[in-house]
Fold this sequence. Notes:
- The protein has one domain: TIM Barrel.
- Helices cover 27% and strands 25% of the residues.
- It has helices spanning 18-26, 54-57, 68-71, 84-88, 107-118, 133-142, 176-185, 209-212, and strands at residues 3-6, 32-39, 45-47, 52-53, 59-62, 96-101, 125-130, 147-152, 165-169, 187-191, 203-206.
- The strands form two sheets. The protein has an eight-stranded parallel β-barrel.
- Helix 6 links the parallel strand 7 (125-130) and strand 8.
Amino acid sequence: MELIAHRGLTYKHLENSKEAIMAALEDKTTAGVEFDVRITYDKKFVVIHDINAMRHFNDRRLISEVPLSELRKLDYKGYKISTLEEVLESIETDKIILVEMKVDFEPEDYVVRINKILKKYKHLNFYVGSFKSAAVKHLKKINKDLKVGILRGIGMDGIPSYVDFVSLNYYADFSKEYLKQVAKSTELFLWTVNKCIEKIDARIITNDPHKLVKCK
Length: 216
């Protein structure tokens, strides 16, 4: 069972921080790391999950409406919001880098811009996915060598032909048999699992890799 650290090693560092991501990749229990990427007002990519920075940085403005220069001023206990490039420049491993594209609007523009960045780091083991199927489909169209995938929190009607993996909410309405069938058809990630589960041929996205590594 391969374990992917959800938003980095979050019991040590702030989620989606550069520190959490690097700690996850350096940890012996993980096969990789997952993190989220949003686009700013001035078309820069930053690593953050929420649509705004309220939860940790007490800032209600939408990420898409704030320039990078303003986001750089935010601080949470010494942690800063990092750009995608700042994170990727620090990575020197063949572990899985699972990037979730948070696409709020204009999926083609988002995809073209993020692809230009990802192509600079071809040596990294990228898996890039999104809930937005249009974004995933366009990314595969312009970069056939990149592993792309669909994320789903509820049922899905078949697996699109253009995807290389599927990432599903383990606690949604997917039966164990369905998950096993998906795993036979494509690479499968399951999120967010923080307890021992029945063995499935899937990579497990978790907040606690040190706990799950003990599962038999």
